[in-house]
Amino acid sequence: MGWTAFVVEMLDGTLHSYGKGFHWEFFELPNGYSHTDIARIHSGMVYSKKRGLHEFSMESFSEITPYREKPFFTCFADIPRG
Questions:
Q1: Cβ pair 9, 42 in contact under 8 A
Q2: Reported pTM
Q3: In whole angstroms, what separates CA 66 from the centre of its chain?
Q4: DSSP E strands: which ranges in 1-82?
């Protein structure tokens, strides 16, 4: 088992903490954001209002509620064949 922490910085300057296990495909985004809104990824970091942006530790983990990985899903698209 493994754990990866990172912070997603959006184009509007907001910061969002993420935590994920070893096996994942997609990660959840805050409401109102899309992947094109991502400006930067801060690897190995977490963000809390109390301490700001800082390195991940088990102590810091108790201060945040990270976004997590999304489960696998099936997507159907109506693609015209030409």
A1: yes
A2: 0.66
A3: 7
A4: 4-10, 15-20, 26-27, 38-43, 45-48, 52-55, 69-70
Residue type, 72: F
Give pLDDT tens digits for 52-82.
Answer: 787 776 666 666 666 566 665 566 667 777 6
pLDDT digits (tens, 9 = 90+) for 19-56: 776 655 667 788 999 989 999 999 888 887 887 787 77
**What is the spatial distance between Cα 30 and Cα 21, in angstroms, rounded to a whole number?**
19
Contact 55, 45 (CB under 8 A): yes
The conformation of residue 49, written as its DSSP 8-state character, comes to T
